Amino acid sequence: MLLRASRAINQDVTDALRAAGFRDLKNSQVFCLAHIDLDGTNVVDLAERSNISKQAASKLVGELVALGYLSTSRAPSDGRAILVQFTPRGRSLMQQSFELFAELERGYCRQLGAEDYAVLRRALRMLGERGSPTVKPA
Questions:
Q1: Helix crossing, 54-66 with 43-50: angle to 10°?
Q2: pLDDT tens profile 27-76
Q3: Domains defined for the chain, CATH in brackets
Q4: DSSP 8-class letter at 75
């Protein structure tokens, strides 16, 4: 259920960004962008945050570099690590995505009602702060 909701929200964000003029983005790229800090993130951390392999993260970063949203360089703290940063176009995208996401949230609030939406936000915040539960195989 949470995975289905996450996918729907990611699609909503992607659709809103495309409508705002960022027509060259795919869902997987938008999901990846959401895990990059505004001051930069290394590829290994990006992969962990996105719950994807380092190779998949590198591929997505390469696509976003080619589209002009990201740049890469060697991390100052570790010359072996690749630092991923937003270009001016990427920063513009992120600024607009914050505004679009705020509008989407207002729509979700209207759809669910203010009280239910507040309960949902609190529950999701608690789940996010707690971390992932350990799942034991059956």
A1: 110
A2: 899 989 999 999 999 999 999 999 999 999 999 999 999 999 999 998 78
A3: 2-130 (1.10.10.10)
A4: E
